């Protein structure tokens, strides 16, 4: 009832003339903004952790677009990870507000809000809790534009949710469900690796013309710290980044796994193995060209992610690269991933893909 009332109020506010002047980038305009801002990322900024970078991005989104709303369980007082701290106090509880404990309702409300040309930023408290909203995401949000023949869409919907290992989460607070949504045409899936990336990618997601699921690596909320530009900037979606160049083997990952893979690259280098490391950033649609170019150079590929190996997104990358680079591959594609079990509690160190597991796989693949 509270959500329905809020939705009606938002609908009435649509006719207000203030919204006719809002600054919202179309896909084309967004690309121009990204081009103009790309050089500015070299500026030194403020040292922030990933949680604070997310908070800063949400501040900017609410400040620059009066049709942006942030909502979810407990977000008005900062959320369980404190990513929304201070938003309700600054922008008011009509734009930043708590919802009932109902993920299907949260996403359903977000679809309706976005369908009325608003920027709906929904928070699912843990990625493990997203499954009750699966039908709304897969059968409604993803198909909204298609089924209406492009007359209507909910492209302003962004679903933020923390995913992955946290050290003590167990099987209900540590899952990485990104592969479920990568199977669905009509939505984008984005996973940042660091504070600077998180801010720029989140702002791009919020301003994108498609519904997006933005998975935030909760393990890095306070562990990852780097210089983050304080101004408003966007990073391109569906554009992978080669964060370390090499010649012997290509490594591909995303999110929290990138820091583990980078450590493995350093260890492999001590043994004379040159690793090229790629951050995919956007899983759907993913940057096949960058990965293909790297594999054509190195002849070998290793993929790593926290989700279980069977049916994980690493399998899609592997299949695509085999199709494109079959005659260039010098070894089978390696996958170092989570195990095909529920995420364990005390046995988490055995479940997650560690640096040593990746180093062993690098050696095995290079020496194949």
UniProtKB/TrEMBL annotation:
| Main subcellular location of this protein, as a coarse class | mitochondrion
Tell where it localizes: Mitochondrion matrix
Cofactor dependence is on: thiamine diphosphate
At the top level of its lineage, which domain of life is listed? Eukaryota
Question: Cross-referenced Gene3D superfamilies, in alphabetical order?
Answer: 3.40.50.920, 3.40.50.970
User: In the Enzyme Commission scheme, what number(s) does this protein have?
Assistant: 1.2.4.4
CDD domains registered for this protein in UniProt: TPP_PYR_E1-PDHc-beta_like
Catalysed reactions, as listed in the record? N(6)-[(R)-lipoyl]-L-lysyl-[protein] + 3-methyl-2-oxobutanoate + H(+) = N(6)-[(R)-S(8)-2-methylpropanoyldihydrolipoyl]-L-lysyl-[protein] + CO2
Which GO terms of the molecular function aspect are on file? branched-chain 2-oxo acid dehydrogenase activity
Q: Where is the Transketolase-like pyrimidine-binding domain?
A: 48-223
Q: How does it assemble?
A: Heterotetramer of alpha and beta chains.
What this protein is called in its record is: 3-methyl-2-oxobutanoate dehydrogenase (2-methylpropanoyl-transferring)
Q: Tell me what organism the protein belongs to.
A: Populus trichocarpa (Western balsam poplar)
Taxonomic lineage from the root: Eukaryota, Viridiplantae, Streptophyta, Embryophyta, Tracheophyta
């Amino acid at each position: 009832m509270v959500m329905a009332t809020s939705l009606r109020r938002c609908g009435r506010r649509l006719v207000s003339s203030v919204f006719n002047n809002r600054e919202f980038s179309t896909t084309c305009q967004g690309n121009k903004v990204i081009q103009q801002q790309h050089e500015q990322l070299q500026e030194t900024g403020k040292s922030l952790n990933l949680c604070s970078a997310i908070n800063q991005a949400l501040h900017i989104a609410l400040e620059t677009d009066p049709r942006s709303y942030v909502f979810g369980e407990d977000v008005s007082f900062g959320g369980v990870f404190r990513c929304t701290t201070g938003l309700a106090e600054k922008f008011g509880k009509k734009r930043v507000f708590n919802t009932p404990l109902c993920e299907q309702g949260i996403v359903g409300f977000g679809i309706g809000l976005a369908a009325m040309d608003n920027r709906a930023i929904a928070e699912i408290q843990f990625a493990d809790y997203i499954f009750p909203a699966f039908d709304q995401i897969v059968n409604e949000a993803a198909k909204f534009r298609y089924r209406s023949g492009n007359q209507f869409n909910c492209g302003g919907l962004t679903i933020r949710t923390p995913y992955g290992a946290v050290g003590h989460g167990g099987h209900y607070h540590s899952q990485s469900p990104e592969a479920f949504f990568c199977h669905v045409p009509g939505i984008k899936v984005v996973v940042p690796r660091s504070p600077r990336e998180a801010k720029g990618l989140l702002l791009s997601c919020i301003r994108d013309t498609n519904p997006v699921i933005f998975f935030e690596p909760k393990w890095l909320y306070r562990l990852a710290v780097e210089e983050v530009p304080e101004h408003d900037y966007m990073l391109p979606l569906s554009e992978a980044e080669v964060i370390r160049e090499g010649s012997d083997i290509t490594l591909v990952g995303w999110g929290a796994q990138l820091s583990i893979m980078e450590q493995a690259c350093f260890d492999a280098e001590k043994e004379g193995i040159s690793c090229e490391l790629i951050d995919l950033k956007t899983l759907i649609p993913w940057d096949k060209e960058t990965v293909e170019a790297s594999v054509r150079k190195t002849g070998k590929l290793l993929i790593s992610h926290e989700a279980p190996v069977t049916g994980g997104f690493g399998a899609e990358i592997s299949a695509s690269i085999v199709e494109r680079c079959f005659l260039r591959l010098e070894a089978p594609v390696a996958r170092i991933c989570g195990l095909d079990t529920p995420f364990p509690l005390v046995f988490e160190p055995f479940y997650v893909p560690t640096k040593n597991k990746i180093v062993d796989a690098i050696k095995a693949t290079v020496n194949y």
